[in-house]
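Ticket #4471: structure export looks truncated?
Reporter: QA, pipeline team
Priority: medium

Steps to reproduce: submit the single chain below to the structure queue and open the exported record.
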Amino acid sequence: MRRTSASLVAGALVAALAWASGPSTPAVALDPSVGAADLTQDLNQILSDSRLTIARAGVVVKSAQTGEQLYATDAGKLLIPASNTKLFTSAAAADTLGLGYRFPTTVLNTGRKAGSVLAGDLVLRGTGDPTMLAEDYDALAAKVAAAGVKVVTGKLVADDTWFDAQRLGNDWAWDDESAYYAAPISALTASPDRDYDAGSVIVAVAADGDKVKVSTTPETDYLKIVNRATVGDETDVLIERQHSTRTVVITGTVADPYQEWVAVDDPTAYVSSLFRKALAKHGVKVLGATVQGAGPSSAKELARHESMTLGELLVPFLKLSNNIHAEILTKAMGRKVSNQGTWSAGLKVSTDFAKANGVQVINMRDGSGLSRRDGFSPGSIVQLLSAVRGKPWFGTWYDSLPIAGNSDRFTGGTLRSRMGNTPAANNVHAKTGSLTGVTSLSGYVTSADGEPLIFSIMLNQYLSGSPKDIEDKIAVRLAQFSRTAAAGDVSQLRATESGAGDLECSWLKPAQC
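Actual output as written to the record:
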């Protein structure tokens, strides 16, 4: 079934109105029995796909108006959620930190200033801001210079103690260590772009005559580049940081320009190098070494930078499914609630929030869903999605979810190439999730009658052929759901292709979908 662009716009307006006010009571009483049988039959047929024969599938659909459960299969089974975990982390963060929360990054001095000489240490203190760019550290250095400081007799102290020293999640795969989506977590970090991929550097290669030229964004000498690539007839190149080192090895052939996002080994040390270089650029000379540790509480502030608000950060976080944002927010919640910037403290905040909102079946091991030991039931996800509709921050959070079929990258996000030209386009607001053998899609959709529905689809342990199109067929069928009109043709639904591959957009850099 296809709709004209005018009807798609109209559908989007209906969807927006259906969700804008949170919990509501239907204007006209709905007959629970009408349409539900057809829906059950169609969803059962969609889930009979051969790719799910030996897989695990959990699906729950609920009416947000009536509270009626319209469909359920394995609603209470614990399944791997992948990035659907971010639904819990982001909701808990919005509730605990508040949409106006900002991450400050400050420069402090520990000594006495005499003329242009600062007799003491210079302290760079972070609280986890994932939006800090090299230019922001440069601006902080410029403020130090503007304060009249030309010489610092002591050390440059990188104070990242707002969070603990554990950089990687307990269950994260070791071979993801150099990947930007599994970058180390630190209270001092930097991003190379306005996707805010904190803790990573963009390494680019290009043919330059008969040699391969390598550059980084931002420019940095922190990484040691070993360039073994050669100019060839095609680009088939591997850019990879060696395990537990700063060495990036480049091999293969280069014909066309290519770039890769590479996680640094130590974000704090990397930021220290950026800031020290920026200080020198602005004429500030630090005589002592660079060290990591806590600056004294008596240190006086010289310069400050504050991040965008959490409400603004939710857009790149959820639209692009940024793992690092999830983990930083987890530690930030722990720091606020129990004064401990740790995974354990932050995860307790998230799970306590979930339980307070009626969620029972949940096992959180990290904030992003990178861990394969994370476990949720589709019923629990639907319960969370139902409960948060009454929160004062719901509208901002709902708008931050990826929107199906909307090609704008910061609107459609990880759903921008899915469900286009269907009743689900510009209607479904949902969080995607992808790991090898795992895919999930949970969120909100407005039916053909204007009835708001909540759903969770979790597919685990499939062996071949991504079943993301199955998720899309279910979401489209929900957008077609009507208690008054005849059901659509499920055979047409099964022919609808999502255009999505095995991985969601967040795993692909540069964005390929």
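Status: closed, not a bug. The export was complete when the record was re-opened. Leaving a note from the reviewer for reference: The mean pLDDT is 90.
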